Amino acid sequence: MIVSGTMLNLASLLTVQSQWQRRREREMEGIKHRTVEVNGIKMHIAEKGHGPVVLFLHGFPELWYSWRQQIVALSALGYHAVAPDLRGYGDTEAPTSVSSYTAFHIVGDLVALIDSLGVDQVFLVAHDWGALIAWYFCMFRPHRIKAYVCLSVPFLRRHPNIKTVDGMRAMYGDDYYICRFQEPGKMEAEMAEVGANYVLKNILTTRKPGPPIFPKGEYGTGFNPDMSDTLPPWLSQQDLDYYVSKFEKTGFTGGLNYYRNMNLNWELTAPWSGGKIKVPVKFITGELDMVYTSLNMKEYIHSGGFKEDVPNLEEVIVQKGVAHFNNQETPEEISNHIYHFIKKFQCDSKH
What we know:
This protein is α/β, with parallel strands linked by helices. The protein is 42% helix and 15% strand. An 8-stranded mixed beta sheet has the order 1-2-4-3-5-6-7-8, with helices on both faces. Helix 2 (68-76) crosses helix 15 (331-342), helix 3 (103-116) packs across helix 4 and helix 8 (196-204) crosses helix 9. Its EC number is 3.3.2.10. This is soluble epoxide hydrolase. Homodimer. It comes from Clitoria ternatea (Butterfly pea). One of its GO terms (molecular function) is epoxide hydrolase activity.
């Protein structure tokens, strides 16, 4: 009877898992995929739903897939959810030149994408490097953005005299991860030694507050010295396998090239130095986020600097016990935050 009971419990568990898997597959099946010509490259986008456009921008090392649950949720609420693989990622083209990954190139891709959707304005939702690109978007073309929900990375005020990476190196030294990412080919070789599966699992599962400092000359334990053999509840093996399958094909160079243009972006954006972001913004981060816990971010966010640079910053949310990938760790909460913020601006949205 014990064996029978155990087998029955196992069968019940497998049935529940199977039902959940089928439901998830049905939801994912509703997401359509296509390729759009933008700014001289072919861009892969995932989309679902009809209505005002919500444009989702992923970070490093991620893909459109990072927004899979928000795409399903927002499309069900009457929005056209669109998530591209950004330049250099996944099924979008990856130009070979390092200098093809400036903020101007990537914002240019997004403006062309919005034009291809036939709309004047979008709601913008972005995380990590996507958030940085979104800030540039708000700076360059604010009239195209109705409102912006920013995850993890607040606006980074441009220092008038110190280049971005130089300032980070002065603060944390040469082994700070962004400094270690600068030399073309070097970090790729270190990542290749441990493999894409290790790199992605290591980064996606980290809960270690910043700043991430790498060992010299190797990837080593990377972002996550406490990496567990088991995945967290919010990241299934199927999810990890999807990321790995794409990055094994593309490598990490496209994503790393964003970091390699940080100093060039500093130079290129000199005309906007001291400018304000006028788009309405809601900011959400986890209290364990490696960005929130680095670079004097807490002081900037909570002591008035952020609000000074972004006058229409309406709300700051710090999620207790949540780490960097908050859109995946707390998908329902993030989807609710997005919906309750953007619906306030929907009445006069052009779509």
